[in-house]
Amino acid sequence: MKRHPRRLGPASDRIVHSYKRSLNGFAARLSEQEAQKLSGMEGVVSVFRSKTRKVLTTRSWDFLGFPQTPQEALPLEGDVIVGMLDTGVWPDSPSFSDDGMGPPPSRWKGACINFRCNNKIIGARAYRGGATGMAPVDEEGHGSHTASIVAGRAVDNVSFDGLAAGTARGAVPGARLAIYKVCWQDDGCDDADVLAAFDDAIADGVDVISLSIGGWVPWQYFEDTYAIGSFHAMRRRVLTSAAAGNIVDGDGKFVGNVAPWMLSVAASSIDRRFIDKIALGNGQIIVKTEEGSTIAQQIISSCKPDDLAKGSYKGKIILCPTQDTSIYGSDPPFAGAAGVVVVDDATDKANGLSLPGLAVSQDKFNKILAYVKSTSNPVGAISSTETAANPQAPVAASFSSHGPNLITPGILKPDLSAPGIDILAAWSPLSPPWGSPKTRVIYSIEYGTSMACPHASGAAAYVRSFHRDWSPAMVMSALITTATPMNTSGNAGYSELKYGAGQLNPSKASDPGLVYDASEEDYVAFLCAQGYNATQLALLTGSNSTTCPAGGDLNYPTMAAHVAPGKNFTLGFARTATNVGVPDAVYDVEIIGVSSTRGMEVTVAPERLEFSAQNGTATYTVSVSGVAPPADKVVSMAVVWSDGHHVVRSPLVVYTVSVDMPTEEMAP
């Protein structure tokens, strides 16, 4: 609930949102005393504070091995509707053309409010604290970018100022989009608005919800609007795909969207990168994968805001010795300068600068400083940006929030990774890219788990187009168990706690062979086993009649356990596989990576699963025992089932990584 300390008016004036289509509740402006009083009333399940969150193609789909949709397959995709909870959309982008598209599915119950829809964008609403008359037009670019990654039409000959040239397309260009604008440039993304959007999207009839929004920390499920909204979506067989989160200036270290009924998506690289160089007067060439151009004449080393405001930098390259993301896209401080070099340890992503420049790691910056101090006339030249291959891809993005899962350490989050670095997609001309006020584009390059998430959302929509009857858990399982492993040399130092099951592989996900299903009752049993009481369950499910069923070992497609360093341990994971392949199927198991477990024993019983019918089920148990590794270590294995055609891979992670204890509001 949204609370304001000022004097409040009549009750009818204080209702922000009334949730009555898919959920049952409301958001209102209340004083602390009123909130406490309301929470004690009979029939009131929960009262909690509304928090404010933040928003988190020419090559990426080809890199994933996902070909462009043939024209004859587009009608199949046309039955799928993806709800985008974001900053809105720019409707005039070629990516959202409805040329050749028929009318929306007859089941669609949505609306277009203060917006011109078509047969591509079939619904559009805006939410801002209960205000009316708001248009869901994208003024920031973020929502257009994510929507086009999911379902943008194929648009040829696009680029960002010549970079990343090619055909921009989404995963399911024939699918429909429903836009729910919940994020605003000045106000962020208010929880009350997001929950209202969930309420409408579920009732409108979307199949997938894409959520590139998050906070700095995970919240207990009964206090997390996204967990609550996605739980109700799951009830109505709608999958929510969410960004794992971004690390910004040290915040957002741990993955934020962790509910087991939502897909949590980390970011990774593609096999294309942008290279920039600065050639120094002593012959040294410093290389960084970034943007920039032209020649500069003199280097200075002061970059404090007050100094920049007073100085004259015509023809000079400014060195910014501290990490300050606010300079990206900034014009006034650099007025007249020939270029800029900034420190940014996240050197795997593109950053927008309004003049020739590049971002370098601290050690490379130190080399530049050493040169500057060695001569009375330091000079340098920043070269034009080059496009190069990235043979190590996919590599986990440095900025992508990682595990462990602080809420339920036994559930591996993030679930998988998807392209989230240097992604070209649609943009809004109302928003200058990278904050540069003089530039207007309709396609831009962006990075973040915000870009990774819609790749997974699009893949989920693709799977849904083949399997309309699958539950959200089945779709999640198909995406997770067919992911490409990322335990490569390029990811040395990372583990599944960073990239999940691996890189998204949508082409295989439509035919996974086996899936791991879970129902609402299974999730409730899981929460009960985690220690949630009846009151806390009611906060999440919205029902005071929720009881704890038997069970508790969630049928999740991955396995994870947090154990004490150096101690003996014994673990058991029970899983039930559903055959979604040919009726008569036999799967044999292999444990991958067990040779590196150092003193651990891993067994699977039985070692063969036999099915006689499609949708038949078989249960097995994975047992792990031994001595835990030292502190801050991760031991990674995988339980792999194969019938000679399908490969169903479930990562198994045992870790001793020390984590910050959850805050009081996180603890059950």
TrEMBL record:
Keywords: Hydrolase, Protease, Serine protease, Signal. Residues 9-54 form the Inhibitor I9 domain. The active site is at D86, H142, S450. Residues 553-654 form the Subtilisin-like protease fibronectin type-III domain. One of its GO terms (molecular function) is serine-type endopeptidase activity. Belongs to the peptidase S8 family. This is Uncharacterized protein.
